[in-house]
C-alpha cells in the first residue's frame, strides 16, 4: 500500500507546507497529530498512529496499523514512547515547543504523549490546524464539488421514494439506501464528542419543534432517548412539511444540503418562510466574500427575517439554534462559524454551509441549506438540487 | 419531558448507588460526568450538560440542552462555571476530590472544568465508571436481550436479500435497510476517538485479508481511504465466504453478532475453521463463569485452534487482532477485554461478545460471533441466529 492512497503527493506537500507556515507563525517547533480527521488531512488516509510535522523539513508518519504501508516517510511503531528515540536516531532534535490537538485529545492520551517527550513544552495546536483546514486547496474543492454532484443525484430521487402513509423514518431509510447506492460513505465526521447523528435527519410536521440536546440547527425527538435527534416515527400526513438534511459524504469531504418536500399544500406562513430562506441565501451569496465578517452574514440574514416578521420561527421555534451556518469539509463543524458573536472572517476558499431554516407550528420545518465555496465574486453554490418545495403527492 | 425517559427512576437510582459505592471505595467525594454514554447511563437519556454524583446523597443533572426537562434533580445552566455556585446555593459543599472522565474528556474541556472548581483535586474516574458499567443490571440485560431478538430477525432475512452478481457493498446496503426497518438505531457507540465504523461490516472473499487501522477483530479495505474498513466493492463469486457483522443497536444497548454466508460450496479448510469457531464458542460458554480470568478464555480458545492446526488463520491472516472478545452494552468496546494479557476477571452479569474468527486465503472470513451474559451456570447466549454457514445460491 502507498502512503497517500488517492491523494497526490504534491497535494499532501502543499497541506504540510501550509501547516508548517502556521506552526512557525505561532512559535511552535513541531506538531504531533493523532486525530483521525487530521491524519486523513495530512496523509490522504486514516491510519492508527501519529504524524510528526516539524516547523521546517519533512513530516514523519509513525504508524501502528495497518501493516504494509511502504514509504520513506513511514516508520512503524508499537507505542508513542518510541517516537522521541526514532527522531533522535534520524538526527532530528526534539522540539522545544510541541503542539498537540488539545480540542480532541483525551486527557489520558495527552499525558502519555507529554511524558513521552520529556523536556518538551506542550501547547495547543488545535486552533491553527482548524484554521489551516478551513481554507480548502483546489484538490479539496474538487472533492467537495464531486460530493455535491452525487448529493444532488440522491435528492433528485426522493419524490420517487415516497409512498402514501409512510412514516418519517420509513422515508429516511429509503433515502439512506439511495444515498448509499450512490456511493455515500455513511460516516458523518463531527469534531468533538458531544454531537452524534446517524446518517441523515428527516423531520416531518411538529417533530421539527422537539428540542434536541445536540448543537444542530434543527431538532427532532428521535426514535430513542439514547439518540434524541431526528425522525421519531411521525406518519407523514397532508399539510406537513418533510425536511430532508441528508449525509453528503461521498469522497471523504462532505457537502451539506437540505431540501423540503411537502405532503400536499402547505399553509401560507410556511411557504412565505421557505421563500424567505431562499431570499436569505441569494443575499448572502452576494455578500459573502473574502474579508466579510461571519457575524455580518448572520446579521444580514436576521434583517431579512425581521423584514418578513418571521423572527419567532427562525432557527427553531420552541428552542433556537444560535448560528445559521458553519464550515464543512472532512468534518461537519469546521470553521468559520456563521453566528452573531463569531469573530471569524471569511477567507477565499473557505467552504461553508448556510442553513437559514424556520419551524412553523403545525406544519414543520422549512428552508434550504446549501454548501458554498467563498470566492472573490461571492459564494459559489455546489449543492444544486431545486430549492422550491416539492410536493410528494 | 421527564428526566428519565424510558428508564424507570428505580433503575437510575440503582445505577447511581452502584457508582457511589465505587466512588467511595476509591476515595473520591464526587464525579462529574459529561460523556454522552455515561450521561445516558446515569439519566436514561442523552442531554448536553453534566451529571454531578456526590459520594453520598442525590445526583444533580446540570442541563444545557434540550430545554423543557422537568424534574427536581434538574438545574438548567448555560456553562459549567455555574455549577460550583449552584451547588453552594443548594447547601452542598464542594468536594475535596472530584473524578472526571479522563479517558474521554478532551484536554481543553478538562482544563475548563478544573478551573471551574478551584481548590478541588481532580482525579480519573473513567476506570471505575467503566467497571461499574461492565456489570449490567436486570433492566440492562433485558434491553440487551431485546436487541438480540431483533438482531436475529435481521439475520434471518439475509438470504432473501442476496441477488446473483451483487457486490459486498450492495448486499450490505440491503442489510442496513432491513436492519433499520427492524428498528436498528444505526448509531454504533465506540468509546474513544480512534475507532470509526459505519453501521456494519460485510467482508467477501480476500477483502477480509486487507489490514485496517482500526482495532476491530476483522479488517477490509473499505470504499475510501477516509474510512478504510469493511466492504470494498468485491463482487461476490462462487467459493467466497461472506461474513456479516451487523449493528445490533435496537434499544440503546447493542448486541454483537457475526454470521457467515457462502456463495456456493467453500473449501474444506474454511469449513473446518468455521466448525472450530463454533467449537470454541461451545467450550467458552461452559468455561466462562464469574471468577474466570478473561485471559484464560483466550488461552482456551487458542488451545482449540492449535489442536486444529489453524493458528496462522486465527483472528486474521496478514494482520492479526490481539483479542477474541470484548464487553458490550451502550458502547461496543466495554469491559471486560478477552485478550492474552487482560487482567479482567469475569463477573456475574458482564455482557461479552466472543468472536473467534479466521481468515482463509482465497475464501475469506469464517467463524461466528455471539453476545453472552455471564451467569453462574456459564455464558448465556442472547444472539440466536443459526450458526452454520448458509449458502446464498
UniProtKB/TrEMBL annotation, chains A, B:
<feature type="domain" description="Peptidase M24">
    <location>
        <begin position="142"/>
        <end position="375"/>
    </location>
</feature>
<dbReference type="Pfam" id="PF01321">
    <property type="entry name" value="Creatinase_N"/>
</dbReference>
<dbReference type="InterPro" id="IPR036005">
    <property type="entry name" value="Creatinase/aminopeptidase-like"/>
</dbReference>
<feature type="domain" description="Creatinase N-terminal">
    <location>
        <begin position="15"/>
        <end position="135"/>
    </location>
</feature>
<dbReference type="Pfam" id="PF00557">
    <property type="entry name" value="Peptidase_M24"/>
</dbReference>
<dbReference type="InterPro" id="IPR029149">
    <property type="entry name" value="Creatin/AminoP/Spt16_N"/>
</dbReference>
<dbReference type="InterPro" id="IPR050659">
    <property type="entry name" value="Peptidase_M24B"/>
</dbReference>
<dbReference type="InterPro" id="IPR000587">
    <property type="entry name" value="Creatinase_N"/>
</dbReference>
<protein>
    <submittedName>
        <fullName>Xaa-Pro peptidase family protein</fullName>
    </submittedName>
</protein>
<dbReference type="InterPro" id="IPR000994">
    <property type="entry name" value="Pept_M24"/>
</dbReference>
